[in-house]
Hints:
By secondary structure, the protein is an alpha+beta fold. It is built from five helices and ten strands. Helix 2 (115-122) runs antiparallel to helix 3 (125-133).
Amino acid sequence: MGLPGGVFYLCYSPFMKEFTTPTYSGVWLPFDGNRETLRARIQEHLRGAFDAHGRLDVLANGPHWTPSAVGGTPLEISYSHSSSPAGGQALLIYSTTHRLGVDIERADRVLNGKPEAIAARYFHARDVESIRREPGLFMTLWCKKEAYAKLDRGGLVGTFRVSLSPAPEGVSLQEIPVAPQGWLAVAATAPIMAKSSPESINSPD
């Protein structure tokens, strides 16, 4: 089944939703709060996708990014997970051509403060202005910030100060249309050879 943006389902079940795009492939997985179980599921999925004999070494040692190799070809992965009383979710994306970062959030996540105040404390001035004009953008922009932080690998504090309006040169930030109801997901991608040139918080204009 095709979706906007060249996204296609590969399979669908209540427990797994697998899809592919021109840039990366992905799969939604259930998350019960156990990170070790999630890492095992990630390794199982990637070995099934790339190496049925288990020779693929998946260094799933963190939720942000993991370089590995498939027959000498670099493999980039990024995954995000979040718990919810209604049932947690995890999303894995992977590519042999692009650097990746991904984040997921509940669309109805309860914030510890007003969106405008949180944005003013952590975000670039242009992003703060966007949220003031349209407060409903906050969670989507938060997802973009986290996804870009994982792509950039520069840490959350500094990366949150980078303006994403527009995205840094060479970086694509797109919502993922294949998502369980009530969830937001954003993928940050950049060709493996490209380097982003983020704008500093000290240059809001």
